[in-house]
Amino acid sequence: MRALLLPMLLMHLIAGPASAEPTPLVVRVISQGAKFVGTGMDGVHITVRDAGSGKTLAQGLALGGTGDTARIMNGRPRGTPIADDSAAAFRATLDVTEPTLVDVQVHGPVQPAGAAVAASAQHWLIPGAAVLGDGWVIELPGLAVSASASASKSAANNRRRVTAHVSMMCGCPITPGGMWDAARFKVEAWVVGAAVGSAGMGNRRVPLAYAGTTGDFAGDLPSGAAVIVAQDSLTGATGTARIAVPD
């Protein structure tokens, strides 16, 4: 009898359900052409889903600092970690029973309003195997742009001064001669519905010039709707913001 029970017990153990293993996960989001996106922009939304079932396994915000500028921007051998302990991250511990393909989706930054874009990637999550180094790093394309109009019109041209604030998605500053040199950024206001050569406009696109303070570009616009478009000539990153210029 004992000779029969032992094989049966072994078969039961082999056929039984696999136990889940705690698996640490780190996800970081890096701005196109710049540093990590985190608390300075109110974070980035992270969602991790089972690619097969669509089940949400973890979600939350990537928070923390932008990281070490020299380590990120000065170039290092491929595979060398660029994140230090201060760099923004989303951390979770997942219980998985088998190698699992997951979708990692990021959406942000949270601020300024309207600047958020989405990016995603797929990775294999292996039970018990921690994600090493920088973690899973996903690049967030674009520029963060917001805009405001002055309270009154200029007596000289009967238009309002519109100021666009432009930064990298991490909030990294755009300044003349800086790491993100203002000279390489082209910022324009596209006046919605204005025909090229219309009276009082001369052109549908109005250039905005660096306004003397970090990340600010300004120009005079007539009343109506406009789209501010910012472009980084070095990386190709772009961003927009809509504004209604009052009468």
How would you summarize the topology of this molecule?
Layout: H1 2-15, E1 21-31, E2 44-50, E3 56-62, H2 69-73, E4 90-96, E5 100-108, E6 117-125, E7 136-140, E8 143-153, E9 160-168, E10 174-175, E11 180-181, E12 185-191, E13 205-210, E14 216-221, E15 224-232, E16 238-245
Parallel strand pairs: 1-7, 10-11
Antiparallel strand pairs: 1-4, 2-3, 2-5, 5-6, 8-9, 9-14, 12-13, 12-15, 13-14, 15-16
Tags for this entry?
four-stranded antiparallel β-sheet; seven-stranded antiparallel β-sheet; 47% strand; 8% helix; 247 residues; mainly beta; 2 helices
What does this structure look like?
- The chain has 247 residues and is mostly beta strands.
- 8% of the residues lie in helices and 47% in strands.
- The protein has a 7-stranded antiparallel β-sheet, with no helix packed on it.
Give average pLDDT, whole number: 89
User: Which H/E pattern describes the elements?
Assistant: HEEEHEEEEEEEEEEEEE
Radius of gyration of CA atoms, rounded to a whole number: 25 Å
Question: Which bin fits the share of residues in helices?
Answer: under 10%
Coarse structural class: mainly beta
Q: Figure out the total of helices.
A: 2
Number of strand segments:
16
Separation, N- and C-terminal Cα atoms: 95 Å
Summarize the structure.
This protein is mainly beta. Helix content is 8%, strand content 47%. Strand 15 and strand 16 form a beta hairpin.
